[in-house]
Design goal:
Blueprint (H helix, E strand, L loop, with lengths): L1 H47 L7 H24 L3 H23 L7 H23 L2
Length: 137
């Protein structure tokens, strides 16, 4: 009798973990889509206006932070627990994917101070989004 209860409890936990992974991946996908849209807008603005190219780096950092914040927040609204961890995972996975993609496209890819700043910002805004998502009703 006790064994059956434990087995059902384990199955329920496994299903919850699978839903958590799916929600984390959804949040990651949302963050990447938002990034793509905003970077497309940035490219159009830079192409058709006299905007200085000096705005590119701060704008990319801002777009990254906002995208991760929104994606992490949305994914954690459904999970409703462990916002710090799950948000950090969304931010960390986002940064890893972006840097893997960048290293494939750019053969001379290196880790710089700006890269480290982006990693820290990505994880920090993921954690912040996780906190917001868990506490949002």
């Amino acid at each position: 009798m006790i064994f059956r209860y434990h087995k059902k409890s384990m199955e329920k936990t496994d299903k919850l973990n699978n839903k958590n992974y799916i929600n984390i991946l959804k949040g990651l996908g949302i963050a990447l889509i938002i990034t793509f849209i905003f970077l497309l807008i940035l490219a159009i603005v830079l192409t058709y206006t006299n905007a200085s190219e000096d705005i590119i780096n701060p704008t990319i950092i801002t777009i990254t932070a906002i995208s991760i914040l929104i994606g992490s927040s949305i994914s954690n609204m459904k999970i409703k627990k462990n916002g710090l961890i799950n948000g950090g995972i969304v931010g960390g996975l986002y940064i890893i994917l972006i840097y893997l993609f960048s290293s494939i496209l750019n053969e001379s890819f290196t880790l710089t101070i700006q890269s480290i700043v982006m990693i820290v910002i990505g994880i920090a805004f993921g954690v912040l989004g996780g906190i917001i998502g868990v506490n949002k009703s």
